[in-house]
Design goal:
It is a single chain. This protein folds into three domains: 195 residues, no CATH class; 95 residues, no CATH class; 107 residues, Immunoglobulin-like. It contains 16 helices and 16 strands. The longest helix is centred in the middle third of the chain and has 26 residues. The termini are far apart. InterPro entries: 4Fe4S_Fe-S-bd (IPR017896), 4Fe4S_Fe_S_CS (IPR017900), Cyt_c_oxidase_cbb3_FixG (IPR014116), Electron_Trans/Redox (IPR051684), FixG_C (IPR032879), Ig-like_fold (IPR013783). It comes from Dechloromonas hankyongensis.
């Protein structure tokens, strides 16, 4: 029996489940994909910042008016009762997400996501003020000098201005922008001030500091995108068959002992999430194409064909599909199904909006007066009619009633409702005592806009007989 070793063993090294964050210094890149990314930046921001300033019929063209509880979209006025259209919009957005992701991966993330867009804007400001990648790295590693403090202060001041204007613009979609301007700088209501600074703070924090951490750790889309991908989904991918083994070589070198990848590391340096695309498909990849723009010029310099990193499918890479075969595999059953459902719902929504009657009527019988006998011996019921004119011009509506012999409205049968207003009117309906059975009788109110025959509502109600 061997004696046991009594020598104390070293304590096991601690294992961390959390990776320490390392700031990513992104190198500037030029190319086809970068150009399209900036086209989308300009398009989305012109749309976002410009829409609140557009006017339509003397008011803001796009406005979710919280006080009036109306949604103005150019000539369309939607009320809380039109929440059905919000549900349709969410369904269309969901199917569009499924379709575009199944076809082209995370295109939205790489080009139109607000996180990506504002990170691009903030990084552009940073690059212009502090310099390129190597200059920024040296600046951050160096001591705090007056120059460094000044550059940082200017950068953050511009970031804060952009964030505040973004917060102000977002609030302007819910409170008319002319009211917000009139309230500047000290007459803002508490909620408007809160939401302006709330959104500004998140813009400043996420685009200025968190950046890729939002995509990697906070955004749920990065986590569930895997279930929407398949081997025929277009993704940014590296061709290991062509690129490996990596190694440096000179242009026109006769002896080629390595793959096309010269291991320059540019694809990593330009990646906004800091991944190495050469390790395969990763959930952190937002599909921006910056690595393609960095790699193609390197291939030109060493005399190799472009496309070592390219936008293609896993099947195309593995089975060497031609472009025609790639397109053929993209048009697979799930894509056709998503497209059919998306088109059907979109067309149905457009048809519903186009044929929507711009008049809403609620008929409520006065429950405090079930039925009573009038001076002339007829039986009368009292009703409250709520008329909602969803157009932006005043309307005159003619009221009538049917469903029982001799039924009629007592009093004025013309109601005027102002533009985009909700009007309530009380009306009295009488019938001869022999016209109906005891108890509930079904009647119908007809409300028609004068000089607009297409604007009419046929509403069901109940008339009580003693």
């Amino acid at each position: 029996m061997e004696p046991q070793d009594s020598t104390p063993q070293p304590a096991p090294a601690p294992v961390s489940f959390y990776e320490k964050h390392k700031k990513i210094y992104i190198r500037d890149v030029k190319g086809w994909w970068n150009t399209w990314r900036w086209v989308l930046v300009w398009f989305t921001q012109i749309l976002f910042y410009g829409a609140p300033w557009l006017e339509w019929n003397g008011r803001q063209a796009v406005l979710f008016h919280l006080v009036e509880r109306k949604f103005y979209l150019f000539g369309l006025v939607l009320w809380p009762q039109d929440v059905f259209y919000l549900a349709l919009l969410l369904i269309i957005s969901a199917y569009a997400l499924f379709l575009f992701t199944a076809i082209a991966g995370r295109l939205f993330c790489g080009y139109a996501c607000p996180q990506t867009v504002y990170s691009e804007i903030f990084m552009w400001v940073e690059n212009k003020i502090e310099g390129d990648r190597s200059t920024r790295m040296k600046l951050d590693k160096g001591p705090l000098t007056a120059r460094k403090f000044g550059l940082k202060a200017v950068k953050h001041a511009i970031w804060l201005l952009i964030s505040l204007w973004t917060g102000f613009t977002l609030v302007a979609y819910f409170t008319p922008v002319d009211e917000l301007l009139a309230a500047l700088p000290f007459d803002f209501s508490g909620w408007e001030l809160f939401w302006t600074f709330f959104y500004a703070g998140f813009c400043y924090m996420q685009a200025g500091f968190l950046r890729e951490q939002v995509c990697k750790y906070m955004c749920p889309y990065a986590r569930f995108q895997g279930v929407m991908f398949d081997p025929d989904t277009l993704v940014i991918t590296y061709d290991p068959e062509r690129g490996e083994p990596r190694g440096t070589r000179k242009k026109g070198s006769a002896a080629k002992t390595t793959g096309d990848c010269v291991d320059c590391g540019l694809c990593v340096a330009v990646c906004p999430t800091g991944i190495d695309i050469r390790k395969g498909i990763q959930y952190e990849c937002i599909g921006c194409g910056a690595c393609i723009d960095a790699c193609d010029p390197v291939m030109d310099k060493v005399g190799s064909p472009r496309g070592l990193i390219r936008y293609t499918t896993e099947n195309a890479l593995e089975k060497h599909f031609t472009p025609k075969e790639v397109v053929g595999h993209i048009l697979r059953p799930r894509v056709i199904l998503y497209t059919a459902v998306l088109v059907a719902i979109t067309l149905a929504s457009i048809w519903s909006l186009a044929t929507r009657v711009p008049l809403k009527v609620d008929v409520i019988r006065d429950r405090s007066i079930l039925a009573r006998e009038a001076d002339d011996g007829r039986i009368e019921n009292v009703y409250n009619l709520k008329l909602m004119n969803t157009t932006e011009e005043p309307k005159r509506y003619a009221l009538s009633v049917e469903g029982m012999d001799g039924i009629e409205i007592v009093g004025d049968r013309i109601v005027e409702v102002a533009s985009a207003e909700n009007h309530e009117v009380t009306i009295v309906v009488r019938v001869p005592p022999e016209s109906g059975k005891a108890g509930a009788n079904t009647i119908y109110f007809d409300i028609k806009a004068q000089n607009h025959d297409s604007i009419a509502v046929h509403e069901k109600a109940t008339f009580l007989m003693p």
